[in-house]
Amino acid sequence: NAGVTQTPKFRILKIGQSMTLQCTQDMNHNYMYWYRQDPGMGLKLIYYSVGAGITDKGEVPNGYNVSRSTTEDFPLRLELAAPSQTSVYFCASGAGKGGNSPLHFGNGTRLTVT
Amino acid sequence: DAKTTQPTSMDCAEGRAANLPCNHSTISGNEYVYWYRQIHSQGPQYIIHGLKNNETNEMASLIITEDRKSSTLILPHATLRDTAVYYCIVRVPIGFGNEKLTFGTGTRLTIIP
I want to staple B5 with a disulfide (CB 3.0 to 4.6 A). Which of A8, B16, B23, B54 is the partner? Predict the structure, then answer.
């Protein structure tokens, strides 16, 4: 049981390039989330999904897109990378709605845009 | 959003109990308090959560005041591996009947040998 797996661990992009951050979970969780963490700050919610085919925006969605075609996978797409997107990205999953359900996090993707 | 307030940093001697406070005075009656920690910029690690009763698991204990306006995370016998940033979080509602975790800047706990 690997939990939440994120790839790649590190990536350097040039301004204007695009990439997809991969996230997969093997816990059969319906709820999945993408967060970003800037240096010295807490995590901010980018997008989330409550099941296959259903996604919605979080606090900081601009510059990102997501899709959820399967329960296991929740990729995050950056179309035109900008220096402001330099950050560490965390994917998380949870078993269900309601406050009594912990989220489980991956170990992150460290992205630098130059 | 229910906001939380935590001290920026704390020290604790190895082997002693570490008590991390958190204020959440605007919490609503059905909102859970969660604690996570983050070590060396790894992914946040779930520690414990509770609604109104005190909770204990193999990692820690959570004490919630009767009015639910504050809580304390207790690591009973701190080790050097407990050095981390600890986040106290109140889950707040978002769309589709879902909740989100709103992370603040947390408490940087340093365990002193």
Answer: B23
